[in-house]
Amino acid sequence: MKTYKVLTINPGSTSTKIALFKGDECLFSKNVSHEASELAQYETISDQLPYRRNMILDLLKEAGISLDDVDVFVGRGGGLLAMEGGSYNVGECMLKHARNMQNGVIHPAALGPQLAHEFALQYGKQAMVVNPPDVDELQDLARMTGIKGVNRVIHLHALNLKETAIRHCKNVLHKKYEEANLIVCHIGGGISISAHRKGKMIDGFDIVGGEGPMAPTRCGSISVADLLSYMKKNHYSVDDVKSLLTKNGGFVDHLGISDAIELTNRADEGDQYAKMLWETMIYQIEKCIGSMATVLHGEVEGILLGGGMVHSQELVDHIKKTCSFIAPVTPYPGEFEMEAMAAGAIRVLNGEEPLKEYTGKVCWSGFEWDEHE
């Protein structure tokens, strides 16, 4: 079986990550920071495309790396409409939606498909995205809310969640992801908790919309009545509240910090406020894990913990103590995003998964009775 070479590209708000893989082996990786003043000269995120492309090419040239023998280029799949998980060809429809950020989320990840396409054109190879941020595999029971016509969607760290699950199934359970039931968590700057049944992420929390546990920069679930009162008291706008959901809530709103290490250091030094904040976040994570266990009817083969905060042994031990009665808890500290993009492409090239086509249509558009509204 051929060992394929893959270049993965993950554009972020202040940096661009690239990594070159040969099979499972990472040959080269780099995270390049961008000055805010440099990015500010571009009117839109898509306008940054030539700048970021040339930066990557210069970096690889400086490292003496040729892309002539790369088999596939994989970009982070931002800006796209909700779709099932998997690996997707970067076609014209996907490019159009990425450029326009069709899902309404303004984030540099939308440059991922565009950059992969640029390199694929230049070198005559394939371009893909793997498990984009807007993966939607919810079961119908997870969609309805108590307001007619308002249905749930979820935004999660789908790429890392699914790769963690796939690796655990292969290396620990010795079975296919499509044969297992798992609760998979990403615990980092944002916190995703999800239920996976037989290869589908059937439920989870909308971390962009304010569901789930609090996180370093996110407020998490809050009573609607309490939030409305808070808005009225502080003269907050809708945009102010959206900021609390994604950027300025959690640790930031309480103590003005987003670093979990700094928070735990304060707690260790006797800061009771910091200690309570840290323990409350863990408590909320555990509650959410418990809820996903009921989604899977208690048939859970593992609880997997990924993300940067999983480097904290205290956090892992606490979750093990509280949740091991459900299933074994296994930590996978850090992130597998670059590895996950490469692995997804290689599975396609090896014939283990189909290469899907992005249609530009949401995979779920509402219940049949919603059409009469």
Average residue-wise pLDDT = 94
User: Helix content range of the residues, please?
Assistant: 25-40%
Count of strand segments: 12
> Which runs of at least 5 residues are low in confidence (pLDDT < 50)?
none
> For the record, what CATH class of the largest domain applies?
Alpha Beta
Q: Roughly how many Å is the radius of gyration?
A: 21 Å
CATH topology-level fold name of the largest domain: Nucleotidyltransferase, domain 5
**Fraction in beta strands:** 15-25%
The oligomeric state of the chains shown is: single chain
Report the biggest beta sheet as strand number plus sense, adding barrel if it closes.
Answer: 7 strands, mixed
Distance between the termini: 54 Å
Descriptive account of the structure:
The protein contains twelve helices and twelve strands. The longest helix has 24 residues, at 272-295. The chain is globular, with a radius of gyration of 21 Å. The chain folds into two domains: 5-134 and 338-368, ATPase, nucleotide binding domain (Nucleotidyltransferase, domain 5, 2-Layer Sandwich); 141-335, Nucleotidyltransferase, domain 5. Strand 8 (191-197) and strand 9 form a beta hairpin. It is an alpha/beta fold and 373 residues long. The protein has helices at residues 36-40, 49-62, 92-100, 111-123, 158-173, 224-234, 238-246, 250-255, 260-268, 272-295, 313-323, 337-349, and strands at residues 5-11, 15-22, 25-33, 72-75, 87-89, 126-130, 181-187, 191-197, 200-204, 303-307, 329-333, 355-357. Helix 5 (158-173) crosses helix 12, helix 9 (260-268) crosses helix 10 and helix 10 packs across helix 11. Helices cover 38% and strands 18% of the residues.
